[in-house]
Amino acid sequence: MPLDTSTYNLALLRVDGRRWNELRQQGNTKIQCIITGPNERDASKNTSSSASTAPTAGGAGATLAVSIMIAPFATVDRKRRGRNDKRVQEMQTTIACGLAAAVQGQAYGPRSTIHIALNVLSQDGSLLAGLINAASLALVDAGVPMTDYLVACTAGSTSSYAAADEAADPLLDLNTQEEQELPFLTLATLGATDKVVAMVCESRVQLTRLEGMMATAADGCKAARDFLDGVVRDKGELMVQEGAIGRGEVVSSMDLD
Amino acid sequence: MPITILQPSLAPPPKPRHEDSHSDSEGGADLEGDIAMGRPAKRARTQDSSIMTPGEIITDDPQWMRGHGTYVIPGASSNTILSSVAGTLAKTNKLLSVRPLRARYTPEIGDLVVGRIVEVQAKRWRVDVGGTLLAQLPLSAINLPGGIQRRRTETDELQIRTFFSEGELLVAEVQQLYNDGAAVLHTRSLKYGKLRNGVFMSVTGTGGGGGGGVVRARRQAFTLDISGTDEVSGSEKIDVVLGVNGYIWISKHIEGEGAAAETSGPGITRIEESVGLNVYSSQNDIIPVDTMREIARVRGVITALVENGLRVDEEMVIKGYQEAVEMAKEERDSADTLWLGGERGKRLTKALVGR
User: Fold this and answer.
1) Top-tier CATH class for A28-145
2) Contact, A173 vs A10, CB < 8 A?
3) Where is the composition biased (Basic and acidic residues) (chain B) (predicted)?
4) Range of B10-14, B23-27, B306-310 with top mean pLDDT
5) How close A255 gets to chain B, by Cα (Å)?
6) Which candidate, B90, B91, B57, places its Cα nearest to that of B76?
7) A8 in contact with B at a CB cutoff of 8 Å?
């Protein structure tokens, strides 16, 4: 069942270079991420009682609290989701645990919490991937130390079992329409490495297809990392040009003598 | 009041970031390895850019030591130092550290901070100073009203809310740091204590992280003479406290009080006479409208400085205030001369930097 709507190109990701609240677009998915903290506020006392938490650095570092809000106007059918939607909660937990692997929370101490509030303004596929990327970029912008960007991407398979079409291409970065029709997975890797931090696959997929999909998604992650990196660099260079921060020094072997 | 509609300024044209690699209709990836997805030519930019980003290798030379904002891969035998934040590289002899573009305030001993009480405990207060953890202010680290020197008794503990209660603002100094980075404050000086008669504002104060905002300076608190503006009657002054943590307090100046009071005042022996009984008063004095307006103007100047990415320190605030007064004189007939956002803020900062 080939889709004529299918496009392979990685979605044009756009970022509005705002502080603390970053807007990001993956496909037509629009996500706003607001980071509060790290500060010493009890996660359970906060309004987002439904947030999922995960400790960093094996419990010795700051706690991450992730809460997702999907706006009723984000989808076509204008469905209101409850706070305790199990799918949303699972995504929260996935993001919290995934980011906990990348964030170096020991710089802050175990009593502090980083609150990550994700608002889905428009939903058009690759939701989990977009959420992870938005949170990752916002954390970097907030100056939270991380081993690398945590980037995510989706991949799907066009081939059906009946067709037995071994040469069918895997798809990268699916939109809603594709997600509804094709088996797909979301893969999150640590930066440009092939270290898989999280993988979510909710559909039935042929085992032989899985490897190709994962490879595709991992490549998408690398591209996403480069894009996020470019955005951060552009902003940093702008700040250097404006004189907000001092120019950096360069390490060269010449200095060592 | 008439409403002015300002022409929105055009956003700067977006920089072409990617060579258009998204049109590869051939397909994203195949398993044999050759991948065409807008990746190449990307690595080259690390060479000319001085910005470090998380996960970027700074050096693999074993002679360097790693400092803040960097990490090494645990367990690996190599000496590769990687960056963990986005920022610029700083070298101190053989120590490599990355100064983040933006960061939360990290307290250091001796910092002058403005804080807000968030919690009252039996023998101490917990103060929000904008850091990752709440700072604490022990009961023994404050001056008693009247400047009496004695041990803090149970009576004082019971009356702890008469000194500071929740939500109140104070200016204090960082006395001590714990291992986890939490700060202990003290207000045992006439310069420190409860804040009133003014306005609070919060800017991006990184306290040495970089990226505009309040910077550590020789003097964090100063008095601004506003009698130079001919609209103000009498000789009024404004106290400005620039907390290193980015919290700022702008208030009416009262002789012999406030953080900007000269240290040449009464010595420790005469502290009893000088510390009035009203140091813990939460009641504002009567503030003339002129003073209020000038306080608002100072606040506008600081907001404009931050919005335009300039540092906030004594020199910039004083210069900026003078410039703002000049601007207000020029536009005497316009309805609102206090507002310093948008184009007016740009004009102000341009005049400042151009000097």
Assistant:
1) alpha beta
2) yes
3) 16-25
4) B306-310
5) 10
6) B57
7) yes
Q: Where are the alpha helices (DSSP H) in chain A?
A: 86-102, 127-141, 176-181, 207-242
Task: Indicate the pTM of the whole model.
Answer: 0.74
Contact residues, A window 65-94, toward B, CB-based 8 Å cutoff = none
Who contacts A65 (Cβ-Cβ below 8 Å, separation ≥6)? Answer: A43, A46, A48, A51, A52, A53, A96, A113, A114, A115, A116
CB atoms within 10 A of CB B243: 27
| Cα–Cα dist B129/A125, whole Å | 41
User: Residue A14 — pLDDT band, cuts 50, 70, 90?
Assistant: very low
Distance CA B313, CA A251 (A): 31
Beta strands in chain B (DSSP E): 51-52, 57-59, 65-66, 70-72, 81-83, 87-92, 95-100, 112-120, 124-128, 135-138, 169-177, 183-186, 193-194, 198-202, 213-214, 221-225, 237-242, 247-252, 311-312
Q: Does the A148-257 domain belong in CATH 1.20.120.450?
A: no
Token representation of residue A16: 């509005």
* Contact residues, B window 308-337, toward A, CB-based 8 Å cutoff: 309-311
The interface predicted TM-score (ipTM) is: 0.72
Can you point out the beta strands (E) in chain A?
14-16, 21-26, 29-39, 52-55, 63-70, 113-122, 150-157, 170-172, 184-190, 196-201
Interface probe with A: pick from B92, B104, B134, most Cβ of A within 10 Å = B104
pLDDT tens-place string over residues A120-144: 888 877 888 888 988 998 888 888 8
Quickly tell me which residue has 């002054």 as its tokens. Answer: B237
**Residues A33-69, buried b or exposed e (16+ Cβ, 10 A)?**
bebbbbbbbebeeeebeebbbbbbbeeebbbbbbbbb
What does the block give as tokens for B138?
């022990």
Distance of CA A29 to the CA centre of its chain: 12
Ranking A65-79, A95-109, B151-165, B222-236 by mean pLDDT, the lowest is B222-236
Min CA distance, A30 vs chain B (Å)? 19
Q: Where in chain A is the domain with CATH 3.30.230.70?
A: 28-145, 148-257
